């Protein structure tokens, strides 16, 4: 050993020690660790059902062979995570370098997970040593991108709260796929190439399939009760799962018994003993809302119909549309409200129930004020629509004289009424339930123009069952007479002449007692229609002539022309064709002067009927075709259907059976769409013509 050499090893050593006096070069040959392949996904759901459309969409995006980011959004409990897990487990072989998972904690009591923390967990899962993970978001994000750049991984970012939370967690590999679940839309991720899947509630059949998987043959043995359970759960998978779990532990409990329990306390009944409940899921979303959003959530749920437009929502909240619009957008973003059309929204059934329960914390005065604002908004809009359809008609309702502007055109009015018919009906029912009699009867008068164009008889009778008693309670006899006269017309149209006469005579009695000449003219006109319907033509002519005399004295001109048309129709039935033609021509001229194109077209139809009765189908065709052209331009489905039926008769009369068949088929479609009993007549005529 050379002088100055020393053999010593300070510290603790585990293993062998090699000492050398002089070493030229040292080569370290460390074994590279095997790549870590994480498999972090929770188990796939055992009772997964349906979602074929959503799975196919995700498959299609994956087939593009590029980095994929999919945002799966929907309300709480709709099955977003189940869908994501099912798809990611199914496609696991496409990502050999692993599957990453993190619950980002959007609804956690501790608050959401920060991107820095999530990146630390991901890097550790991918084999990076804790000591090598840098501090700070930007440096961790850079390392994550580097580590995943050449890897084929799938990532589930569950319960995300924002695009900013998600964005740093997106790998850069073109062979990666990221699925984000959130109750929010996270539309900001579109800038990162994300695509979006909206998860909706199950339909009834899918709901029944999920129930059957949970409780077995009891679904098949009690099909009606099972269907009702599915409907009570609103197609929401968490609700169905709660019911299924409860029933699976009680094999002797009938589905009918479960239905009864849910009906008596719907949200409260959707709870398991371990605390899993639908209500708790909704509560988590609700408590996170800003105050203005929470108020809109509560008050919009008081809307009487299932869906509503932005104007109705503004009425409920009591704020301008411009201020309510971003609030509704926020509720849509949070999947507490669904946008079902352009500026049109609806609640899921169970969310609506939850929102109404939250509204119970508002005072009764606040709730009633919101409901009344909505009812009055629908009534004012209805008045505007009726003014567009019948601008010169005499009305008794105060809102017709309060400055409400008519809608821009008859076609626009009919389109609005088609969209809002159910909501208008439900608004009237709400007014009746609240004993707002002054509003209830006005709905009936204001729906008159729409009824004439569509003949939705069920709605009409339902409204008048509410409106006539309301008018009586207010002591407004003119309103009562008006509504009873409207009922008389309706009963006559259904050939229920005894009921029509009863209502018409009561309307006439009220008007005569009060010296109400307008009311007398209306009642006499409808009683004339009753007598015409039962074949008492001379008496009908007398009543109609009396009504026309009053109209000539006090107006309006349109009402006088209307009486003239009906006088002409009775004269034609009496065989006095020349007089009938003169009456109809005069009525048509007045309607044209007033710009009432529908009234003019109906006069043309009446002339066509005269020609048909006199076996002159070719002459009838020209008048009926002209009328049909006008009615189609305006968009009047009932009068269009009546005219098509007459055109079918005319075509039969000239031997053109294919054209006749086409006209009858079109008329059948229009009558059937309105639930009109004349659809049966059209079916019979088509059957009589036989197959083409």
Automatic annotation (TrEMBL):
Name of this chain's protein: Tetratricopeptide repeat protein
GO molecular function terms noted in the UniProt entry: ADP binding
Family matches, as Gene3D superfamilies: Helical domain of apoptotic protease-activating factors, P-loop containing nucleotide triphosphate hydrolases, Tetratricopeptide repeat domain
Organism: Saccharothrix australiensis
Segments passing through the bilayer: none
UniProt cross-references to Pfam families, sorted A to Z: NB-ARC, TPR_12
Residues in NB-ARC domain copies: 58-218
């Amino acid at each position: 050993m050379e002088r100055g050499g020393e053999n010593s090893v300070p510290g603790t050593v585990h293993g062998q020690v090699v000492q050398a006096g002089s070493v030229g070069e040292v080569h370290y040959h460390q074994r590279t660790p095997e790549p870590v392949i994480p498999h972090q996904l929770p188990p796939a759901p055992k009772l997964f059902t349906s979602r074929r459309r959503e799975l196919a969409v995700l498959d299609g995006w994956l087939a593009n062979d590029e980095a994929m980011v999919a945002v799966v959004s929907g309300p709480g409990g709709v099955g977003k995570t189940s869908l994501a897990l099912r798809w990611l487990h199914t496609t696991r072989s496409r990502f050999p370098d692993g599957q990453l998972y993190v619950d980002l904690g959007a609804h956690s009591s501790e608050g959401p997970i920060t991107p820095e923390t999530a990146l630390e967990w991901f890097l550790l899962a991918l084999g990076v040593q804790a000591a090598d993970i840098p501090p700070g978001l930007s440096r961790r994000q850079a390392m994550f991108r580097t580590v995943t750049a050449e890897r084929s991984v799938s990532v589930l970012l569950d319960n995300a709260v924002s695009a900013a939370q998600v964005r740093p967690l997106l790998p850069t590999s073109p062979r990666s796929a990221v699925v984000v679940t959130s109750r929010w839309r996270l539309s900001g991720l579109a800038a990162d190439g994300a695509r979006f899947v909206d998860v909706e509630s199950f339909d009834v059949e899918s709901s029944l399939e999920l129930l059957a998987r949970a409780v077995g043959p009891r679904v098949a043995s009690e099909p009606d009760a099972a269907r009702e359970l599915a409907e009570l759960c609103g197609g929401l998978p968490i609700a169905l799962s709660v019911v299924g779990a409860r029933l699976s532990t009680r094999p002797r409990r009938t589905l009918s018994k479960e239905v009864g329990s849910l009906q008596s306390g719907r949200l409260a009944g959707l709870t398991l003993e371990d605390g899993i409940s639908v209500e708790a899921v909704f509560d988590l979303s609700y408590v996170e809302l800003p105050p203005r959003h929470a108020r809109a959530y509560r008050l919009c749920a008081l809307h009487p119909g299932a869906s509503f437009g932005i104007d109705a929502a503004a009425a409920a909240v009591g704020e301008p549309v411009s201020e309510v619009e971003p609030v509704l957008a926020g509720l849509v973003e949070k999947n507490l409200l669904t946008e079902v059309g352009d500026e049109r929204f609806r609640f899921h059934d169970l969310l609506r129930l939850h929102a109404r329960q939250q509204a119970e914390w508002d005072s009764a005065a606040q709730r009633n004020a919101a409901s009344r604002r909505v009812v009055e908004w629908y009534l004012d809009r209805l008045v505007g629509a009726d003014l567009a359809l019948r601008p010169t008609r005499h009305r008794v309702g105060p809102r017709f004289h309060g400055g409400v502007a008519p809608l821009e055109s008859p076609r626009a009015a009919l389109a609005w009424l088609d969209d809002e018919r159910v909501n208008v009906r439900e608004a009237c029912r709400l007014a009746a339930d609240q004993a707002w009699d002054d509003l209830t009867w006005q709905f009936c008068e204001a729906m008159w123009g729409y009824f004439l164009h569509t003949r939705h008889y069920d709605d009409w009778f339902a409204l008048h069952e509410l409106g006539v008693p309301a008018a009586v309670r207010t002591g407004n006899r003119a309103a009562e007479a008006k509504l009873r006269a409207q009922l008389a017309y309706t009963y006559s149209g259904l050939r229920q002449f005894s009921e029509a006469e009863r209502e018409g005579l009561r309307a006439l009695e009220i008007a005569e007692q009060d010296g109400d000449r307008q009311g007398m003219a209306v009642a006499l006109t409808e009683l004339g229609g009753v007598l015409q319907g039962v074949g008492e033509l001379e008496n009908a002519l007398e009543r109609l002539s009396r009504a026309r005399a009053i109209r000539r004295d006090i107006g309006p001109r349109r009402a006088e022309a209307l009486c003239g048309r009906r006088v002409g129709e009775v004269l034609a039935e009496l065989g006095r064709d020349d007089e009938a033609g003169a009456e109809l021509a005069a009525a048509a001229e007045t309607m044209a002067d007033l710009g009432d194109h529908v009234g003019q077209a109906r006069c043309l139809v009446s002339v066509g009927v005269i020609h048909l009765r006199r076996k002159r189908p070719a002459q009838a065709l020209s008048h009926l075709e002209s009328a049909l052209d006008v009615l189609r331009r305006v968009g009047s489905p009932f009068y269009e259907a009546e005219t098509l039926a007459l055109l079918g008769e005319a075509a039969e009369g000239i031997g053109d059976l294919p054209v006749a068949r086409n006209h009858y088929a079109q008329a059948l479609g229009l009558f059937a769409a309105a639930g009109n009993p004349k659809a049966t007549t059209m079916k019979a005529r088509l059957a009589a013509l036989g197959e083409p």
